[in-house]
Amino acid sequence: MDSFLQGFIKAFELILNLDQTLFGIIFLSLKVSGSALFMATAIGLPAGALLGLKRFPGRDLAISSVNTLMGLPPVVVGLFVYLLLSRKGPLGFMGLLYSPTAMVVAQTILALPIVTALCHSAIVNIDPIIRLSARTLGATPGQETIAVIREARYGIFSAVIAAFGRVMAEVGAILIVGGNIAGYTRVMTTTIALETDKGDFELALALGIILLTISFVINALLHGVQKRGAVKTA
Q1: For a surface tag, which of 104, 128, 191, 206 has the fewest beta carbons within 10 Å of its beta carbon?
Q2: Residue 194 pLDDT
Q3: Contacts of 105 by beta carbon, 8 Å cutoff, 6+ apart
């Protein structure tokens, strides 16, 4: 019990003293996950809008595929990206394996189906009268799409926040493609796993506290966005 409490005390000391190693790991985690989220949103939002607003052959299959990919096993994604970026892989010449870029690629693949599927869901649930009104007022197809996306903004924000929560908690895929290299590819989740295996709990506990705080903030934001959206549609 004493060692357990002592571990928490030292963990809080690391946080309060702004330990350089600790905050370097946190910064890298936010940088990698933020970059992946940006890429996933840049691709997933237009894709979700396309699935929600356009009719084309294979649309139902595409929607089913995106919904299925929301549950992608992280280790499978890590294996796929590893084979893609390894020396003998098709993109091996780029030398990206065991780098933050490889981690961003893996996290983007994990976040993309979540952003796409939830954006699609938010857009298809918008009252058709919005599109009809925009069309009646002489809006171009692009302006009509923007009007629908604006109306679905709370659902889209929820999609982005949910995807960020997924990638921040990820460990399997980034461990495979990043290699957990100290000062280069070591992020919060992989450090927690490593330090726990070593029996050095202070840093692991400090990062766990930070990760739980970030998770709480993400969920609070998600709840706030959903609440605002519910009030707006009421």
Answers
A1: 128
A2: 87
A3: 36, 81, 85, 96, 177
Distances (CA, A) of 63 to 47, 89, 160, 178, 197: 10, 30, 18, 31, 41
User: Which residue is it, tokens 């766990």?
Assistant: 208
Task: Give kind and range of the element (H or E) at residue 177.
Answer: helix 172-178
pLDDT digits (tens, 9 = 90+) for 82-114: 999 998 889 999 989 999 999 999 999 999 999
Q: Are 110 and 37 in contact (CB under 8 A)?
A: no
Would you call 95 helix, strand, or coil by DSSP?
coil
Spatial distance between the Cα atoms of 80 and 173, rounded to a whole number of angstroms: 9
Whether the CB-CB separation of 14 and 195 falls below 8 Å is answered with no
CA separation, residue 217 to residues 11, 203, 225 (Å): 20, 21, 12
C-beta neighbour count of 161 within 10 angstroms: 22
The predicted structure's pLDDT at residue 211: 87
- As averages over each run of 10 residues, the pLDDT of the chain (234 residues) reads 65 80 90 95 94 89 92 92 92 92 96 95 86 81 85 88 89 91 90 84 85 85 72 56
User: And the tokens for 208?
Assistant: 């766990």
Direct distance between the N- and C-terminal alpha carbons of the chain, in angstroms, rounded to an integer: 51
Torsion of CA 146, 147, 148, 153, to 10 degrees: 80
Domain ranges of the chain: 23-187
